[in-house]
Write a structure and sequence with these properties.
The chain has 244 residues and is of the alpha/beta class. Helix content is 23%, strand content 30%. The protein is globular. The model has no long low-confidence stretch (mean pLDDT 97). InterPro entries: Aliph_Amidase/BUP, C-N_Hydrolase, C-N_Hydrolase_sf.
């Protein structure tokens, strides 16, 4: 299985332009035969809580059809981030596209304190099952700091933990340590997909990373450039690709 994560520089509030950006990433992921590609938290809007209720949509938004088409054609699972809505509730969500299947949605269950006044917590964890017994547990940012989240993933037989985040230059080192510890404690391969640039008033730290089951850092992008990391679960090879 080949797992791909992206490090993006989001365009504030512009879903259409961010979709075009994501397509460039996916072209590379498909070329590298990735089975799954996950983007950072709220990747299609940037991390913009003040705009979230205006930008919030549903998993059936036709602007997202292009991701379903790419998934169907290339048998790749794709996870993109954006605010979603149901009635009066707004969620921090990852919409997940699987080849010739209905779209899934995973909404952040554990909100950061500053998010509580804007967003509603999600109520259900989801898992993605792949050939070879690989089980992927998605996480969204602050959830990696809540031990119950990774413990629950482990209890449900996840061996791959992918955190879709916005991580600032002030918080990155603490979260790198936490993710390494999650990998080591639960014998999971752990991934973190982060932004560069600025979003939501934060200076984003980049350093999109991969840890092996021993908690050892095996791949990391820099703090300045967009790019992808790809990990092969069989060969343990890590491939780094830049975006032009």
């Amino acid at each position: 299985m080949r797992i791909c994560i992206g490090q993006t520089n989001p365009i504030k509030g512009d879903i259409e332009k961010n979709i075009d950006q994501h397509k460039r990433f996916l072209d590379i992921a498909v070329h590298e035969n990735a089975d799954i590609m996950i983007f950072p938290e709220l990747s299609l809007t940037g991390y913009e809580p003040k705009l979230a209720k205006i930008l919030a949509t549903t998993q059936d938004d036709t602007r997202l059809d292009v991701f379903q088409e790419i998934s169907d054609l290339n048998k790749i699972v794709i996870g993109v981030g954006l605010p979603t809505k149901e009635n009066d509730d707004t969620f921090i969500s990852m919409v997940i596209f699987q080849s010739n299947k209905e779209r899934l949605i995973y909404s952040k269950q554990y909100l950061y304190p500053t998010e509580i006044d804007v967003f509603t917590p999600g109520q259900k964890q989801i898992y993605l099952n792949f050939e070879g017994g690989n089980v992927v547990a998605p996480a969204i940012c602050y959830e990696l700091s809540i031990s119950e989240h990774s413990e629950t993933a482990h209890k449900n037989h996840a061996n791959i933990y992918i955190a879709s985040v916005l991580n600032s230059i002030n918080g990155i080192e603490d979260d790198i340590k936490k993710l390494s510890e999650i990998a080591k404690e639960f014998k999971m391969t752990v991934f973190m997909a982060n932004y560069i640039g600025q979003s939501g008033g934060y200076e984003c730290a980049g350093k999109t990373s991969i840890w092996n089951e021993e908690g050892k850092l095996v791949g990391q992008l820099n703090d300045k450039n967009e790019g992808l990391l790809i990990f092969d679960t069989e060969t343990k090879e890590v491939i780094e690709k830049g975006i032009k």
